[in-house]
């Protein structure tokens, strides 16, 4: 049996996850959520003395900011937007008739001003831009958001709706690069405490199309993205559970975020895939958290 489907079936059988009928959209048990909450506490402990503020975002962001991000230029295959019924009474009757006949009823669905958030840090940047120039020490923000990426899969580690916990550093090139390198070290320390097999490797985002291959190659050559890889459903193709990203001044220019000297701000982030990390723990330590190794339980439960 395929290892991905086998693990997914085990999670369903143990009622750790609950099937919805759509691949990548699952209900989560209280035990699963407890593991995520405890991992977040661990992650927040590492940066608690450094952050300037913390934010939590909903799974949607403004369409204007979504377009400013440039996401559709690079990842149109993953994007999701919110549409809603915008017709009149007559249109509503037609919609109900189409539904009753099993026909397409979506023709009167129109685009709203909301896009599904693809990356947890995107809603932060316009907020910082509206505040004016950054202070000399920049910004250091802890945030969390539900995210959406349209890539339905039976791989439980590739959910369509998932949460990212992030630390985002905004400031100079030196500040953001030092932040990223520090978190690469911290990420490995966290994996050791959780007794998860892991390694860090240079990576690239899944850019779309022919031009995307050039962009991916450039991202790798400049070492802008690293991933913490942990085997979940495959030893041969381990899953990225953390990412360490340096965006240069791309987002600073896109949203006009300025450093104290007026130059475009540089940004970097470390992202924790919360569902993926929980799945890694269940995969390597078993589906009963009460039987996890003492060191792991100490790291998460204290």
From TrEMBL:
**Protein name per its UniProtKB record:** Amino acid--[acyl-carrier-protein] ligase
**Boundaries of each Aminoacyl-transfer RNA synthetases class-II family profile domain copy?**
147-293
- Lineage of source species: Bacteria, Pseudomonadati, Pseudomonadota, Alphaproteobacteria, Hyphomicrobiales
The UniProt record lists the keyword Ligase: yes
What InterPro entries does the entry give? aa-tRNA-synth_II, aa-tRNA-synth_II/BPL/LPL
Q: Which CDD domains match?
A: Gly_His_Pro_Ser_Thr_tRS_core
Q: Which domain of life is it from?
A: Bacteria
Q: Record's Gene3D superfamilies?
A: Bira Bifunctional Protein, Domain 2
**Where does this protein have coiled-coil stretches?**
none
Stored SUPFAM superfamilies = Class II aaRS and biotin synthetases (SSF55681)
- Could you cite one Gene Ontology molecular function of this protein? ligase activity
């Amino acid at each position: 049996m395929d290892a991905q489907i086998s693990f997914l079936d085990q999670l369903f059988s143990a009622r750790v996850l609950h099937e919805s009928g759509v691949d990548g959209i699952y209900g989560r048990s209280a035990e699963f959520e407890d593991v995520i909450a405890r991992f977040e506490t661990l992650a927040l402990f590492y940066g608690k003395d450094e952050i300037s503020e913390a934010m939590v975002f909903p799974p949607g962001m403004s369409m204007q900011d979504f377009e400013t991000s440039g996401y559709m230029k690079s990842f149109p295959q993953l994007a999701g937007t919110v549409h809603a019924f915008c017709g009149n009474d007559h249109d509503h009757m037609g919609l109900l008739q189409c539904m009753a006949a099993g026909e397409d009823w979506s023709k009167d669905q129109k685009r709203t001003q909301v896009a599904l958030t693809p990356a947890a840090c995107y809603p932060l940047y316009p907020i910082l831009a509206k505040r004016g120039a950054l202070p000399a020490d920049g910004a250091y923000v802890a945030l969390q958001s539900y995210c959406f990426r349209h890539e339905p899969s039976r791989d439980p580690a590739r959910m369509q709706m998932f949460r990212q916990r992030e630390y985002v550093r905004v400031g100079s090139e030196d500040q953001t690069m030092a932040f990223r390198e520090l978190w690469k070290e911290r990420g490995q320390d966290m994996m050791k405490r959780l007794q998860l097999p892991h390694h860090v490797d240079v990576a690239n985002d899944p850019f779309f199309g022919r031009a995307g291959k050039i962009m991916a190659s450039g991202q790798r050559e400049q070492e802008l993205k690293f991933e913490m890889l942990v085997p979940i459903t495959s030893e041969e193709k381990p899953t990225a559970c953390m990412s360490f990203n340096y965006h240069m001044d791309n987002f600073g220019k896109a949203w006009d975020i300025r450093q104290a000297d007026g130059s475009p701000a540089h940004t970097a982030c470390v992202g924790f895939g919360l569902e993926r990390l929980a799945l890694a723990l269940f995969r390597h330590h078993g589906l009963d958290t009460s039987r996890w190794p003492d060191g792991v339980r100490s790291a998460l439960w204290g």
